[in-house]
Amino acid sequence: MTTSGHSALAEIIRRRIEEAGSRGISFRDYMELCLYEPEYGYYVKPVEKIGKNGDFYTSSQVGTLMGEMLARFILKEMAGIPRAALVEWGAGNGLLARQILDEILARDPNCYAGLTYVLIEASPFHRSLQKRQLADHEGIIRFMEADAWLQAEPDDFTIVLSNELLDAFPVYRVIYTTNGWMEERVSCSPDKSKFVSIEVPLDEPRVLEYLRSRSIRPMERQVIEVNLQAYDWIRTVASRIRNGLVITIDYGGPEEELYAPHRMEGTLLCYRQHRASGDPYCFPGEQDITSHVNFSACIEAGKLGGIREWSLETQKRFLVEQGILEELRDHAAHDPFSAEARRNRAIRQLLLSDQMSELFKVLIQRK
Fold first, then answer.
1. Which domains does the chain have, with CATH numbers?
2. CA-wise closest residue to 284 among 79, 43, 33, 46
3. Strands 269-272 and 244-253, sheet pairing
4. Does residue 151 contact residue 89 with C-beta atoms inside 8 Å?
5. Buried b / exposed e along 118-148 (16+ C-beta atoms within 10 A)
6. Is it the case that residue 131 has pLDDT exceeding 90?
7. Which pLDDT does position 1 carry in this prediction?
8. Which of 65, 253, 298, 315 has the most CB atoms in a 10 Å sphere around its CB?
9. What is the pLDDT of residues 173-207, one digit of tens each?
10. 3-state secondary structure at position 264
């Protein structure tokens, strides 16, 4: 299949491959270019990505319940704390942030008054969406670059929140063989009309160390994604906060689940116009590329950053614990478009949908 996608980005990738020589470039570098190249990367371009007119949905698109339940959890954690910073990393269009802040303001104005909501966002386009979405809360909103926040003096109490962030960090792809680990790298077809995968012996020191340190017993020719950036991010963020929490919401699971024998092809998925595929080489820069998060590695990284306790549960269980079932309302059965009926449907979707109820996990790490 001929490589589609943004021609300028494809040319940038081709040049990188030519400069790299016969080994091509790592899949990690290819994925980073596709998603984050400063001008043409998928997450950088000024186009809608979330919702009906985008490529995928997030839980914040299902009514306002996800933000409301998170707000309730945050309020419990902030009880008795006069001032705190809530930091959302990669807030997309800002919808989840608005839901959280609307609910906190409605339930506890005093807590709201003592809150600073920090948004860390690399995309100028997404930052503009967030500013519009959060115009009613501009008095407590701050926009910061990642490096600036990491280097700033820690607040007395900080909650760092990410929702579907780590799954889009660039990953290495490796293949287990009885003769040793191989790495999937990216090259061009002879006529340079498409990008293709090649296999070379794995020699990346950090990836090899990661694999040696994990409890992995793969099958012959099993593909595994290695997300070193997620590991580093959790450790760095945990180290940065003095007191508080890191809340990570994403799809994935413990490594024994991710590396189970039935996952021979790994967990990589691409999303374009609400269609999923396993081909990352079509439409570079025009489709989302994701992989499941290894929460076992995230827990380990948090401990290195000073995390003292943690919990990992399904999103379904988290929502039930915050009281989502109490939001079910009686309504006139003949009016399926009433506010009550729509809210009940949203609750069912969040709790019963396979993707949003069991596959999504909530990792809460305390320091």
1. 7-43+171-225+277-289 (no CATH), 59-169+228-262+292-366 (3.40.50.12710)
2. 33
3. unpaired
4. no
5. bbbbebebbeebbeebbeebeebbeeeeeee
6. yes
7. 37
8. 298
9. 999 999 999 999 999 999 888 999 999 999 999 99
10. coil
